[in-house]
Each structure stands twice: as C-alpha cells, then as structure tokens.
Fold:
Amino acid sequence: MRLAITFALGLIFGCGLYLAGMTDPGKVLGFLDLAGLWDPSLAFVMGGAILIALPAFRLAAKRRQSYLGCAISGPSSRKIDPALLAGAGVFGVGWGLAGVCPGPAVFNLGFLDPKAIVFFAAMVAGFGVERILLFLSPPARPAAIVQDG
Amino acid sequence: MQIDWAHFSPASGVAGGAMIGLSAGLTILLIGRVAGISGVLGGLVQPRRGDWDWRVAFLLGLVAAPLIIGLAKAPTPPDFDAGYGTIAAAGLLVGFGSRLGAGCTSGHGVCGLSRLSLRSLAATIMFMASAMATVFLIRHVFN
Structure:
C-alpha cells in the first residue's frame, strides 16, 4: 500500500514536470537565457510548487511520524559550506549545458530517447564519481549525513 | 531584456508547479521523505537496508508518467539541442554537482525553499546563477 502510494506520488511529480515544461530542454534553456529572448515561465513553476509544498512542510515539521507511520527524515545540516556551493555551481553548469535536471532526466527515460538515456547514464556515473571522491577524502564531508534532497 | 511572449506559459507553469508541490508535500507528509530527485536516485548508488523500496517506487512512477500522459494525448518527447558529447558531459556534471551540493532543483529549489532553509536558498541562487552564466557563455559569447 505504501509503495503503491509512493508510485502514485512519482507519477504526479512527473505529470507536473511535463505540464510545467521542465522536461523540455528548450523551454528550460529559454528561462536560463536572460540575455536572449527570455521566457520567465519556470519562475511560475517554482512559485506554484512552493505555494503548495510550503504548508505541507510546515505541518510535517510539527510531526514525528508521517500520516502513514513512517519516520519523518529531513536534512541534518544547516551549514552553507564549500561543498554545497561548489556542488551547486557544478550542477548549474551541467543544467545550463543541456537544459536537463535530475527529475526530467528520469521522466525522459520513459520515451526511450537515445539522448535521454545517455544523459541519465552519465548522471548516474556522476553520482558514482562523487561517492568515489568522498571515499578518497572522507574529512571533506561526512558521508551520508548531508542530504537535503 | 526582451520577454519571449510566444513561449510564455504562466498558467501551465503554475499548474504544473502545483502538481510538483503537491507530490513533494504529500511525500513528506505520507512517506516522511524529501522528494528531491537527485537524492531519491542517488540514495540507490549505495543502498541502505530498508531504504530502497520507496525510492524505486517513486522513480518508477516518474518514468511511467510519459506512458500515463500518453493514454490521454501523445506526449512530446524531449528535443535536445546539444550533441551527444555535450549531453554526456552535462549529465556527468549534473550528477556529480547535485550530489556534492546535496540537492538539485527539486531538493533545494522546491523542498528546501518550502522549508525556508537558508542553506537551500544559497544552493538555489548558486545553481541558477551558474546555469544562467553557462547559457550566456554558450549562446552569446562562444555562440
């Protein structure tokens, strides 16, 4: 039951991404291109998402357990550290190069599009590279503690 | 600054965003987890006991979404401008950066900002600025 609900939540997430235009690389790049013909639509996507999610997260912050009895887990770090900023900077370069972020990368797999598959495979390889570097230099960031989402 | 009125779509943007927010909100309230996709997927690289099944279920829902949309109307497949080399490099950077930075557009940009987290605000400003600078360099400097 819990897994069926989780599946449905992934489905809603994907339909939202599609309706919002987030799965269309051209639309995303049109938003990121401030100096060209700028399409501000994606700012409305973020606004709409936060409008709905904010009250839910406020409610969740007051609870110990979810409504289905799961432990509520959240990020444990509040620090704005070099790893956060460097990671976000690198992520932004990749996002700007192709116009695809992780959610749409998973969604677009459903089309069996060759470029979508290459992007997804490279992204998973990127996860692996990060794990390996973390393993080689453990003091840089405590493993498995910092995870915002 | 010139606005691209031909492609501007605030209504479907807000509606799609609301669905993303609904999914993220219900995920924390029902499953107790943050619906940040780099985190959901990245957690499967080194899976921990009792912490992988919900990830797989959520991601399967996400992959199945184009098929479900297709029941109503054939969805538009992604149209990539970039070539294979750029796509591969971009994927690598997105994967590495989103893990090092502990989140992506959904984890920091939607869930983190909804929690009013300063850390997520810093990350969101950083990746937005970096992505916009990248597009500026590609389209207007190197062309």
Chain B touches chain A through 118 residues (CB under 8 Å). Chain B has a mean pLDDT of 95. The first helix of chain B runs from residue 10 to 31. The longest strand of chain B covers residues 2-3.
